[in-house]
Amino acid sequence: MTVSLPVVRVAHRGASAQYPENTLLAFRCAAEQGVDALEIDVHRTRDDELVIIHDSMLDRTTNGLGRVRDRSLAEIRALDAGQGERVPTLAEAIQLAQSASIRLCVEMKGETEAEGLAIAEAIVAALERANFLDRAIVTSFQPPALLRAKALQPRLATMLDPSPQDGTLTPRQICEQTLAAGANCVSYDFRFLAQAVADECRLTGLVLWPWDPDEPDDIRRVIGLGVPGIMTNRPDVLNAVINS
Question: Does a structural domain hold residue 3?
């Protein structure tokens, strides 16, 4: 029997409140807890390999120093990303998602617009090689990167993080930014999410996935707004709320 869940469950950087973020350990544990998709962040190395790490700098999440873009894949793979985990490659995340029968929400990083465009092209090519286009959503704060990805693969689902995400945008402005980026989906900070935003996205035909509600009360509030998906660092808590 198929059970209908109230929201699509997306693990933000994996089960990142419990395990080192953006590592295979965090991804595996999120899959075991029960999710529909993993949200991951992708940068390019000096030798143009795609690695999964949130920041442009290595310092916060690894024992390394400096910019991701200034290090080779081999140098980055030699680092500790927490609990002995290594910085994964996009190919490894795709393989894990395929084996777990879940989707990937791939955030295209990059410090400049040119870098964002280059990463978008490389990610689309990697998804094509893996035959994973239909199970991926690419996301970015940079509209040009999303437009480039969509131009390369029109059937690819894309998601915009509108800017700024501080509650100052009107619901219509959020949707207009998303439509101008050619995106199908909106990602928005749950702390500034009001019913009017959820309603405007729904009426505009956009999928809304708020990010980072981790506490039960916050998750219940967001579900109560009628959103179709939630990105959380605590998929175990999200599942407990759903099951209750």
Answer: no
Catalytic annotation, pick one of 54, 86, 150, 234: 54
The residue range of the domain holding 72 is 8-243
Distances (CA, A) of 195 to 95, 155, 231: 37, 30, 18
Q: What is the DSSP letter of 54?
A: S
Q: How far is CA 77 from the centre of its chain?
A: 22
Number of domains, the chain: 1
Q: Does some domain include residue 12? A: yes
Residue 2 lies in a domain: no
How do residues 110-149 score in pLDDT, each as one tens digit? 989 999 999 999 999 999 999 999 999 999 999 999 999 9
In a domain, 142, yes or no: yes
**pLDDT, tens digit, 9 for 90 and up, residues 197-208:** 999 999 999 999
Whether 12 is catalytic = yes
One of 12, 44, 71, 86 is an active-site residue; which one?
12
pLDDT of residue 121: 98
CATH, residue 79:
3.20.20.190
CA–CA distance, 15 with 32 (Å, rounded to integer):
10
At residue 1, the pLDDT reads: 47
Annotation marks residue 54 as catalytic: yes
